[in-house]
Amino acid sequence: MSNHTHGSPPRRIFIDKQSPKAFHALVQASEAVRATASEAGLDRITVELINLRVSQLNGCAYCLDVHTGAALRAGESPRRLGILSAWQDTGSFTPSERAALALAEAATDPANAATQTSAYEAARQVLSEDQISAAIWVAITINAFNRVSVMSKHPVPPHHDK
Q: CB burial class (10 A; 0-12, 13-18, 19+) of residue 44?
């Protein structure tokens, strides 16, 4: 039985609420990944840049909202956040951030072997193996959260800032 009227789109199920045990497992995985990233020496700003870039690629407004706030709280500048979608065309990101962003893009489009090879080559120049692994895990987990939010159509809460 459908829960919508003719002509209107169906109401989405918030799958995080519908299947809380599965969502809790994803949250626990993300907490382990955050700890892994910290232990590997990936700073919080780099982690949030990965979260934001992957969320941009996946079109996840909810995660973009959450991780923009997290990046700002971690000390990221509004200017760099504004140009993140064009990070390859700027000199505003460090070599390690660029390597992490390339890995994140490769993890988000895993069928593109050329992108993966290029990302790994760049990452090996500036990141340790632990950092490479952590950056990929950050991308994997935010990809999962993006899919939860996109498929659930989580609304972005209204903000009263300018």
A: middle
CB 35, CB 47: distance < 8 Å? no
In 3D space, the residue among 34, 32, 40, 54 whose CA is nearest the CA of residue 133 turns out to be: 40
Tens of pLDDT along the chain (162 residues) come to 444 456 666 788 999 999 999 999 999 999 999 999 999 999 999 999 999 999 999 999 999 999 999 999 999 999 999 999 999 999 999 999 999 999 999 999 999 999 999 999 999 999 999 999 999 999 999 999 999 999 999 999 887 665
| Per-residue exposure over 2-40, b if at least 16 CB sit within 10 Å of its own CB, e if not | eeeeeeeeeeeebbbeeeeeebeebeeebeebbebbeeb
Please report the DSSP string for 75-130 in residue order: T--HHHHHHGGGGGG-S-S-HHHHHHHHHHHHHHSTT-HHHHHHHHHHHHHHS-HH
Please answer whether residues 64 and 56 qualify as being in contact, where contact means their C-beta atoms are separated by less than 8 angstroms: yes
Q: State the pTM of this model.
A: 0.91
Residue 15 corresponds to which tokens in the numbers above? 């799958």
